[in-house]
Structures are given as C-alpha cells and as structure tokens.
Design a protein that fits this description.
The longest helix has 17 residues. It is globular and about 65 Å long. Strand 7, helix 8 and strand 8 form a beta-alpha-beta unit. 40% of the residues lie in helices and 19% in strands. The protein has a single domain, classed as Rossmann fold. The protein has ten helices and eight strands. The two termini are 14 Å apart. The protein has 251 residues and is an alpha/beta fold. Strands 3-4-2-5-1-6-7-8 form an eight-stranded mixed beta sheet. Helix 1 packs across helix 10. Bound molecules: adenosine-5'-triphosphate and magnesium ion. Adenosine-5'-triphosphate binds next to helix 1, strand 7 and helix 9.
C-alpha cells in the first residue's frame, strides 16, 4: 500500500490532481482509496459519488470506539466496518471518504478524531496493490505528525504565481520535518511565459509534470462531472502518474 498526500495552496488544483490520478491508477488496476482531508469537502463530487458522510460527523461512533475505560483512549479502535460503510465507490471502483473538520492539533493532540483517523489510515495499509490518496489542505499539520508520518510521497501542487511558490517552501519544510523523503511537484494551470519559466527553474524538487491551464476543467466543474469523463488533460496526468509509479517503486 502506498500513501500519497496531495498538498498546496488553496485553489491550485489539489482536488483535481487527486481525482485525475485516482482515476488513472484505477484504470491501471490499482485499488484506489481517496480521502478528502479538507474541511470543505469537494473530492466526492469531483470523483462523481455525490456526498459522503464525513468521519467527523460520526462522533457517537468515534467516541464509542475510541474511548476506553476511565477516560482513556484505545490506540487501536475498530474501524474496518466504518471504512466500508461510510465510503462510497464510484463507477471505477475508487473508494471515497471524507474526514470533515477534525480538531487541529500537532504532536500533542490525542483527540479521538485523530486516533480514529490514524486507525483508518493503518487499516488501509493492510491491502495489497492499493494506493491511498489524501487530498489535503495547504499543510499537513491538521492531521498531526503521527498520522502524516506514514505518507510515502508528497505531491505539492503549484500554479504559476509567487503565493503558491511560497506555500511550496512551507510544505517542503513540513515534509522534511516529518521525514517524508519523496516529494514531487505538479505545475498546474500552466501558462507559458518568461516569468513562469523562471519560477519553474527555482523549484528545487522534481517536477512530475506540467498541466496547462485548460477550460476543460471549468466545463467539467460547470457540468458537475469528473474532469476525466471529458478527458481533461489526460495525457499530462498520464505522464505524472508514470513518474509517480517510478518514484514509489524505487527505494
Ligand atoms: N489545469 C487547470 N486549468 C484550469 N482550471 C483548473 C485546472 N485545474 C483545476 N482547475 C480549476 O480550478 C479550480 C480549483 O481546483 P481544485 O478544486 O482542484 O483546487 P484545490 O486546490 O483542491 O482547491 P481548495 O483549496 O479549495 O480545496 C476548480 O474550479 C478547477 O476546475
Ligand atoms: Mg480541494
């Protein structure tokens, strides 16, 4: 099982990248799980499954499973059934879950939601030829370090622009603090110009691929259909997917 986190500044295309890669991995025969870790949930819609119940709304179940006697927490709550029950599969077999708003907390956070999430991520690890995508907010802080630690690769999505470049630096720092060694950059919404080429040259990490700015994604969004259904930039994403496979296969 490979865990891939997708991060980047707001609106750069994290959810789009997660959805396109999930689709291409599923087409290659992988069992794909995609978890929306953003508090404003939109990955399920982009993957064509409508709404899913966010984990954070299952408070009673979480409490029941996570709480041990006398206010203690169970480290290994049972989550398998929840994983099945509260996820939806799209027509390509991609399993989609949403976390909803979980308590923010770094290292010290031992809130039930985080224990629960960790258990879900652990559970997902046990399957073969699986790939798990985490569609994240700009940081991975809100998941807590313990949870983010198991991430094998971080895909940082950027767009041509200084603000997204600044966010990249923050993401890089965080990834190295946590010990994520494999980082790749996707340059999305690319418009060729002298300054965007200069910006590309300043990126210290491998660029997995470049996705041009394309109206296709806006059309897909307007029609409320997954962008792969109308073949938005599939070739660019195919290149990215191939590179991701090579990187995760290499030790
Ligand atoms: N290559 C592209 N060209 C044009 N538009 C794009 C491209 N990629 C994504 N978009 C559009 O940009 C908008 C934001 O994309 P998306 O929701 O994937 O970003 P995000 O990083 O997940 O945003 P958020 O931070 O809100 O979660 C969407 O309307 C999407 O259709
Ligand atoms: Mg998003």
């Amino acid at each position: 099982m490979v865990k891939i986190a997708v991060s980047g500044k707001g609106g750069v295309g994290k959810t789009t990248v997660t959805a396109m890669l999930s689709y291409l991995f599923a087409m290659d025969g992988y069992n794909v799980t995609a978890i929306d870790c953003d508090s404003s949930i939109n990955l399920p819609a982009v993957l064509g499954v409508g709404e899913v119940t966010p984990m954070s709304e299952l408070e009673h179940i979480i409490e029941e499973r996570v709480k041990g006697p006398l206010g203690t927490f169970r480290y290994n709550p049972k989550v398998d059934d929840i994983f099945e029950k509260y996820s939806k599969k799209n027509k390509y077999g991609i399993r989609v879950l949403a976390l909803g708003t979980i308590e923010k907390g770094g290292e010290g956070c031992f809130c039930p939601q985080n224990a629960f999430l960790r258990a879900i991520l652990r559970h997902a690890i046990f399957r073969k030829k699986d790939v798990l995508f985490l569609d994240m907010e700009a940081g991975i802080e809100h998941l807590g370090r313990g949870t983010a630690k198991g991430v094998d690769m971080l895909i940082a999505v950027i767009e041509p622009g200084m603000r997204s470049f600044e966010t990249l630096k923050r993401i890089e720092k965080l990834a190295s603090d946590i010990g994520i060694k494999k980082i790749g950059v996707v340059m999305n919404k690319y418009i060729d110009s002298k300054s965007s080429r200069e910006l590309m040259e300043r990126i210290n990490h491998e660029i997995l691929g470049v996705v041009p700015y394309s109206q296709c994604f806006i059309e897909a969004d307007l029609e409320n259909i997954p962008p792969y259904e109308i073949e938005c930039e599939v070739e660019s994403f195919e290149t990215i997917k191939k590179r991701v496979v090579e990187i995760i296969m290499s030790q």
